[in-house]
Amino acid sequence: xxxxxxxxxxxxxxxxxxxxxxxxxxxxxxxxxxxxxxxxxxxxxxxxxxxxxxxxxxxxxxxxxxxxxxxxxxxxxxxxxxxxxxxxxxxxxxxxxxxxxxxxxxxxxxxxxxxxxxxxxxxxxxxxxxxxxxxxxxxxxxxxxxxxxxxxxxxxxxxxxx
Length: 162
Hints:
mainly alpha
């Protein structure tokens, strides 16, 4: 088995740290996910992960199972080969985008309610005490455009997948 080169090793580490923070994954799970992503469609085996991530078999196994439970990774097998080849679950990005859009819409709704409250309160406030709603208006405009853009990306991914 060949160990990973320096550039891939560095990217696995950097992407792993990103996943730790963004998706609240354990360090080894984040490195496994990163390694699987950077290995691509050919997939990676359990043995490759143990060798390249320098973790015990039980640790790799535990985190592989967890990532499969989260539907982040899946595997395929090859005829005549008993090994599992782990790859990124194709629907992961679509689900992540859907979750992001839902979170943005909830945040957008909150800002709309805050802005409505401030506008209503402004009716009874003197000019010097009035709320400035510019931030909320700009934020809502940004969110609307961001949601349109990410939704278009999701549609592109879906249409290219099928």
